[in-house]
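Sanity check record (used in CI):
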Amino acid sequence: MEQLELSSRIRAAARRANLSSVGDVLCFSGRDLQRLTGLSRSDIDQLIQAAAAAASRSRPITALILTRGFESGRRLSLGCPVLDRLLGGGLPVGGVTELAGESGAGKTQLGLQLCLSVQYPPHHGGLGSGAVYICTEDRFPSRRLQQLIGQQRLPTDITCLTFTDQIYIEHTADMASLQTCLSRRVPVLLARGLVRLVVVDSVASLFRSEFQASDWLERTRHLLSFSSCLHNLSQEFNTPVLCINQVTTVTTMVTMVTTASQGPHPLSSSVSPALGLAWANQVLVRLMMHRLQGTVTHGDQSSALRRLEVVFAPHLAQDGRHAAVWTEGVRGLEEDA
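Expected output for DNA repair protein XRCC3:
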């Protein structure tokens, strides 16, 4: 913590609390820092401000950082030709992609599918390595993963892939454990070449549970520190990062004018990815997964109709494809249903 412009008293209290880096400070709330250090609220405000300033000086997120991921031309296949065509070949390697959608839309299904796809060699759309899957809210869906593995049809030039041995699962119940996971354990896996894909499911869960609306400034600090960590990992190890996100409801209001004046009434509602503009500015590609009315069939299987849409990406047009979730995974439909 010597790099922070603080009094010796505050630096000494931070050292006693084992807050040895900027990241250690930014991963705790103000109340937790007070409890750990015994400092006053005004001292903690100075500590957080100094840490945020140091973080912004160290690795700012620039346009070059955001766009470097797709300039190399490398992609990670989604395991489906229809969806790969929508995304110009798959997820950009070396960038942060967000996949947002309502519960049941198929986001986790796609995340699991990518954990298998990444293990294929490059000439089959993979990266020849494993994945780390970070769960922040629900238990890891092991049963569904085993079902997907059982449905894999290996190309003739691949003799064996032990899919489960190359998927590393992390459960993080709070911001501190998430920060520890991303700053310590994940870099070790990447440096050893054991993984080439990082999945966070979901990015909004901990930020929603640990911060109240009045804590927006502190939440933004944590959010920027978190996104900076993801970008640094992605750049250093040339690794795609997928962040699964929740959504919030956006209601359009209209004033109804009648003989008796009435107040605003909801005209329509839609959903948008959670965490607002601060988070939106940190991702290279934003995708949305929707669950639609109606079903489609495939042999003896039936599935609710889905749609995967490109909301924004520097190298893609806004477009979408209908899809369905089968036992073998998420598959785009050749013709819109």
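Residues 1-58 form one domain. If this sentence no longer matches the regenerated tokens, the check is flagged for review.
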